[in-house]
Design goal:
The chain is of the alpha+beta class. It has a single domain (25-332), classed as ApbE-like domains (T-fold, Roll). 33% of the residues lie in helices and 26% in strands. The strands form four sheets. It has an eight-stranded antiparallel beta sheet. A hairpin with a 3-residue loop joins β4 (149-150) and β5 (154-157). It is globular, with a radius of gyration of 23 Å.
Amino acid sequence: MRRFVMLLVFVGIIFFLFPIREKKEEFSISGITMGNISYNIKYISDESLLVKNEIDSILYNFNNIFSTYIPTSEISVINQSSGKINISNEFTFLLRQSFKVFELTDGYFDPTVGPIVNLWGFGPDKLKNNPKNSDIQNLLKYVGLTKVSLGDSYLIKNRETYIDFSSIAKGYAVDIISGYLSNKNINNFFVEIGGEVRTKGENINNKNWVVGIEDPFEINSNIIGTASLDNLSIATSGNYRNFYKIGDSLIYHTINPKTGYPSYTNMLSASVFSESCFLADAFATSFMAMGFEKSKILSDEMKEIEVFLIYYDNEGNINKYLSDGIKEKINLLD
């Protein structure tokens, strides 16, 4: 009996010192949302906790609020209306956050610029042309987030002011899916929608999740470096994918909401890192219109974001700028 007790004690000590670890696996879910945009989700768990239909349902509801391509969506109904309009909690939140970024960027981030984006052929109509200055100036009269008043659960605007969250929809959708995963006690995950990414915890190898950063000069999606993400999001904007040519001129999709014309700044690519993918997406979009100098000043002032910027200097040379908080997480390949 004494030997048996000693054996039990010995076994107990072994289990205390070397506990049996549950085997973790990497689970993946992928699909299409927002028309033709792909999404990919990876998470680490000892069991499958997500069903693809759940993710698709969340994204379906998201589109029914924010998609300007759906005539019956909340945003489409709002854009067809004027005066005081009741809005959902989701719409209220995103519009309130947009006001904050609008102010921080001095109006370079502006979700009311959609009609001019469409005029240049980058909206739903996709009619590529060189619009008349008079047409641009006529639409500019209704552009500006200050033309929208926001209450607790309503907004006030005139019919001509058009709200479009397309430039930040992917980032915000990433945040919503990430919140859903966290609520299900999934603490190690990777969420990507159309290239915008948010991570939490570690991958299957107990290391930070790693994402590639695209080279702005390569049309084949080659990467210029990698980023090691520690509970961070990344969003990258550039003009290298979405442009067309009229004569000898290249027309880029980033429209300056102050002038109504495509932004021809010295910024080639803006990668922004933040805990929130919406914030990363919004500032990446803004920085393309702001140019390097203004973007650097603003990013240096903000604790919520870190940046990797690729730009032309005054001599026409290509330079790269990494903010201090992200330098150790970036591995450049050249």
